[in-house]
Amino acid sequence: MSISPHIEKTEQEKRRFFCLAAKRYKAECRLYGVKAMIHIENKNDEVFWGKMLHNACPQFKFRFIAASRSVNGNLTAGCSQALNYRPFLDPQLWIAIDSDYRRIQGEADMDAGHFILQTYTYSFENHFCWPANLQRALFEATGQGKRLFDFEVFISRYSHAVWPVFLWLSHMDRTAPELFSHNVFHRQLALPVNGRFLDLNGDAALDLLEERCRKLCKHFDRKFPGTDLSPEKDYLRQLHITRDNAFLFVRGHQLYDCLVQIGEQLQRQIRKSKRPKTRRAVSDRTFESHLLRQVCFGAYPEIDWITEDIRQAAGVQQPPETTSPETTNDKLSK
Known about the structure:
This protein is α/β, with parallel strands linked by helices. It is built from 13 helices and six strands. The strands form two sheets. It has a four-stranded parallel beta sheet with strand order 2-1-5-6. A hairpin with a 5-residue loop joins strand 3 and strand 4 (75-76). Helix 2 packs across helix 13, helix 5 (131-142) runs parallel beside helix 10 and helix 6 (151-175) packs parallel to helix 8 (199-223). The protein is globular and about 60 Å long.
């Protein structure tokens, strides 16, 4: 369908455009022999959603739509583009998107019953930042374990540091969003991860983060004296968001990029070791490539909820609960 890019489209024209596009995608299911076509946010998301779909429904094939045409004819990616297909989703056409802050903000009908898959974390990158996954990737990349860098310690301190500010962000989002923008919050999370900042499991970088967060919380305490954040804490707890897992709900690619920088700098350090045996243990592949190889299925609720959603959308009966699979290697703790 061709629509002139020079004329403002009516809502009816936009709906008709995406309705016809959705019909074409559904027709392609038979052409490609797949269970469903899935519109994701962009090409990078394939590495995550591919793993999730194979784990949940290995008996089915799926095909991704990484970008599609806008009403102006431009090839367009992103969450907003995927959501344009929302009225036309069914067993043959799904979308898979990052939750961002939509779940916290209570956006309706974002569920597998409406053929919408979501990450349940800020973005798919947060899932790769699970501590056991980071530790595995470090061992595969360097042959070293927690003696080199303990990601569990780093992530725990990181989560505890950002949690008080995250409470303020969630509170402001629902009461006065103009007073605390997401961009201000994200700027607090930018960390230096070179040189001395890597020593002692990133101790100096985390000290800096904690100091920033303390100052910002003091600012809000002065500006809004007597504010009770306990209802916000209770609300977030219902969503399984706490100080221990807050790292799953901050901007994913920002945390992910920071952790990849740490891993790849550690890999370079070990490659320069004076001990030949230590140098030989270093992988030819990057830390990031090892990190993207796996996610920790069964390790925490958010990853399990995605699996359940995929099976629901696919019309597959949920299996009985089983013991969570082992996600760590004894060597990682050495």
